[in-house]
Structures are given as C-alpha cells and as structure tokens.
Write a structure and sequence with these properties.
By secondary structure, the protein is an alpha/beta fold. It has helices at about 15-30, 35-40, 60-70, 85-90, 105-120, 125-130, 165-170, 195-200, 215-220, 225-230, 250-260, 265-270, 295-300, 315-325, and strands spanning about 5-10, 40-45, 50, 55, 140, 150-155, 160-165, 175-180, 205, 235-240, 240-245, 245, 285, 305. β13 (about 285), α13 (about 295-300) and β14 form a beta-alpha-beta unit. It starts with 6 loop residues before the first strand and ends with a helix.
Length: about 325
C-alpha cells in the first residue's frame, strides 16, 4: 500500500489508551508522518456523566491525555502531577461525590468542555476543539453526540436498584452483583458525525482490548455502528482483553459474567461473533497463554492469531499494534 493505511479503532478505558498509543507508534515506525490523518479513534462515551455542574467524559479524557503525554500512567486516569484543592473544597460544600476525585487540572478540562457545550457546540465539535491544544497524532470521535450514560442494575440486600456506572465502578468497585448494563435512550440516537463514514472508508478496523461490556459494548449499541462494521470492506480485527483466562486490569470479568460470557479469549470472540456469520470479527488476536484456544476461535469462523498481548511498556504496545495491522495485511 503506497499511501498510509486508514486505521479506525474502537476504544475506551486504560487498555484502549495503551493500544491507541501503540498504534500511533507503530504507524510512525512505518514512516507515517501525519498519523492524525491515518488514525481515527471512536471513543466510548457511555462512562460520561454530569457531576457538580460539569460534564465529565472519562474515556475521552483518558485517551486524550495519553496521546498528549500528560496522563497519570500509574493511576490510569487523570492528569499527571494533578492536585485536588478544588475537589476538597467541593466536598466541604457537600457537592459531588465524596468517593469520586476530580483533579484540579482535570476540572479545567471539564469546565472548558461544559462551557462549550453550554454555548451550543456538540460533543464532536468540543472534542475537535480540545484536540487543538496538543499534537495528538490521531483524530478522536465520540461514539455519539447524544447523552447515553451507562446505568448498572444491581442486586443486593436492598433488592434490585439502578445506579450510574461510575458509582458502581468507582464507589463500589464492582462488588455489587450486576444484573444488567444499559444505555437508556441509545436505540434512538445516531453515531456522531463521521463515525459511519470512517468505518466505511477504513483499510482496517480494530477493536481495542477494552472492556467488551462497558467500553466496546456501548459503542456497538449505537444504531448504525454494528451495521457499518459488518458492511465495511476493511477487515475487522479484535484484540482479546483476556490473557490466560484472566482480565488484565479492571473488573471486566464481573461485567462478562453478568451477560453470561465466560472470562476467556474464545468466549469473548464468540460474544463479538464472526463476520462470516452475523457477528463482527474477521480476525482475533489472542495471547500466547491462550494458544490452546486458537482452534476454538477458528471453529467460530474467526481467523485466530497468537501473539504477545501484554502492553507493559511502549515497545510492547507498539508491537501488539503492529501485529494487529499485519493481521489485516495493511
């Protein structure tokens, strides 16, 4: 391919951030100077919420900060070196959630976003404006411009009740038994402008090793996204978020159990399904620790590729991204 490949990745969370960084590095290693024109990231916005009067977009910000090189890599969210003076003051006023920390620099992002939204900009336009501050080397698109925050229905001693995903994830650390994950109103929304078009025009579409239920799931729930993936001429390649039968980070195993999916590379592949059937995947990258599952994945009608999946540093993330691109022969 003489021109730079057009790469689209669906992503969210820490795994998505690391994978996107690896993709940018892999493209640069191939000599692609203008990676911003080659790489588009469709970001999960199901984690979004209103808190203390400002609009938060956790996955959008995590990927933006990671690409800008200002993220707190140790925590996996927020800005490096951030302080929490405003957060303490908000808590003194009884505002917000005492268990949900907002860093001062992070609040600056939320305030800027909220101001632009109040002025009438769409989330897509806000994200484009945000991307001008740093040389991100990628184009970021929200999955939709509508607000379709993820709601978790849980079962505990008080019975069945619902809460925002962030309360379940951050406050309760996913210890409350989830009954279902929903994005109220999602069936009536549209993909953000450009999402369907970049998928249709892509040379490869990648599903990042993000949580299949609460990171990739909400993106796929937006009407039109699944159809775009099934109809694109580009190969669709997924990367397993499971290594050796365990999640790498977070509580994806709890989420998978709630929807009846086993925590295994083959089970998640089956959850996405083969595009030769009524699913989404042409190929699926699995870890060396899961090599014995390769035949099971192939039996689903999905080409399986065994490769190292650990993204413990920049070089390994780039190597994984290159393996994904090579699988698609781009």
């Amino acid at each position: 391919m003489s021109r730079a490949p057009r790469v689209v990745v669906l992503a969210g969370g820490v795994g998505g951030s690391r994978f996107v960084l690896g993709l940018r590095s892999a493209l640069r290693s191939r000599g692609v100077a203008d990676t911003a024109s080659a790489l588009t990231v469709v970001v999960n916005t199901g984690d979004d919420l209103w808190l203390s009067g400002v609009r938060l977009q956790p996955d959008v910000d995590s990927i933006t900060y990671a690409l800008a090189g200002v993220n707190d890599a140790e925590r996996g969210w927020g800005r490096a070196g951030d302080t929490e003076r405003v957060n303490h003051e908000l808590q003194a006023w009884g505002s917000g959630w005492p268990w949900f920390t907002l860093g001062d620099l992070d609040l600056g992002t939320h305030l800027a976003r909220t101001g632009w939204l109040r002025e009438g900009l769409t989330p897509t336009e806000v994200l484009e404006r945000m991307s001008h501050r740093w040389e991100l080397g990628a184009r970021l698109l929200p999955m939709t411009d509508a607000e379709v925050d993820t709601v978790v229905t849980v079962r505990d001693e008080d019975g069945i009740r619902s809460m925002h995903f962030q309360e379940w994830w951050t406050r309760h650390r996913a210890t409350l038994e989830p009954v279902s994950f929903d994005n109220p109103g999602v069936t009536g929304v549209e993909p953000a402008p450009g999402v369907a078009e970049v998928i249709a025009d892509a040379d490869v579409v990648l599903l990042a090793p993000s949580n299949p239920v609460v990171s990739i799931g909400p993106i796929l729930a937006v009407p039109g996204v699944r159809a775009a993936l099934r109809s694109t001429a580009a190969p669709v390649v997924g990367v397993s978020p499971i290594i050796g039968g365990r999640v790498v980070r977070g509580m994806a195993d709890v989420c998978l159990a709630a929807i009846g999916v086993e925590t295994s590379a083959a089970a998640v592949a089956a959850h996405y399904g083969a595009r030769s059937g009524d699913g989404l995947l042409d190929s699926w990258l699995i870890a060396e620790e899961d090599a014995l599952a390769a035949d099971e994945v192939a039996g689903l009608g999905i080409h399986s590729v065994v490769t190292p999946l650990w993204m413990t540093d920049a070089a390994r993330s780039a190597a994984l991204a290159e393996a994904a691109l090579a699988t698609a022969a781009v």
